[in-house]
Amino acid sequence: MTTDELILQTLHHTTLTEELRDSEIEVLAGVVTLQRYKAGEVIIEPGRNPLAESLMILAEGEAEIQATVNNEPMTLQLNKQGDLASIIGFVGGKGTNINARVEVKQDGAVLLLERSKLESLLDKHPAIVYYVMRGLVRYMHGVARRKTAETEEMSNYFYKMHGRY
Question: Which PROSITE patterns does the annotation name (predicted)?
């Protein structure tokens, strides 16, 4: 598969483009870059985030995000084409202080969407920016729902609540 084909295929598999037409996805493809990584590489770590204002979209392989949120460790697996990472840095910019680590678990590739490149579409393609941001919110909402369900399930298991265990 060529780089261009992988980019388009990945964009079609992410919530960012659910409301975009094919021609709009092609415009978005023109502002993303593809970066390949080897298993064991650390892409982001506390104090070192070369992609501070870039959204990562998993194209191939697997990666793991480890972060501390409200003094609680959290792990998130990226294992499906179209999974997203570095969302808070993408939205919040360099001033955002997130202690996260992203490690590649299986050789692969990610698409990088720099915030400034997405913003460059505002004048000529404002609908693309609007729908991409809506897709980003939908993705985050899905992650929050899944994590809440997992936490509730674990709580039910540990405390034997609701007669399920």
Answer: CNMP_BINDING_3
**What distance, in Å, lies between the first and last C-alpha atoms of the chain?**
47
* CATH at 8: 2.60.120.10
The stretches of the chain forming alpha helices (DSSP H) are 3-12, 22-29, 87-92, 115-119, 126-159
Rounded Cα gap, residues 95 and 100, in angstroms: 15
Tokens at residue 90, please?
């993408």
Q: Is residue 164 part of a domain?
A: no
Residues making up the chain, counted from first to last = 165
Burial-class residue 94 by CB neighbours within 10 Å (0-12, 13-18, 19+).
exposed
| Domain count for the chain | 1
Winning range, highest mean pLDDT, from 62-71, 73-82, 87-96, 130-139: 130-139
Half-sphere exposure in the Cβ direction for 14 (13 Å, CA): 35
The answer to whether the CB of 18 falls within 8 A of the CB of 135 is: yes
Report the greatest alpha carbon distance in the chain: 56
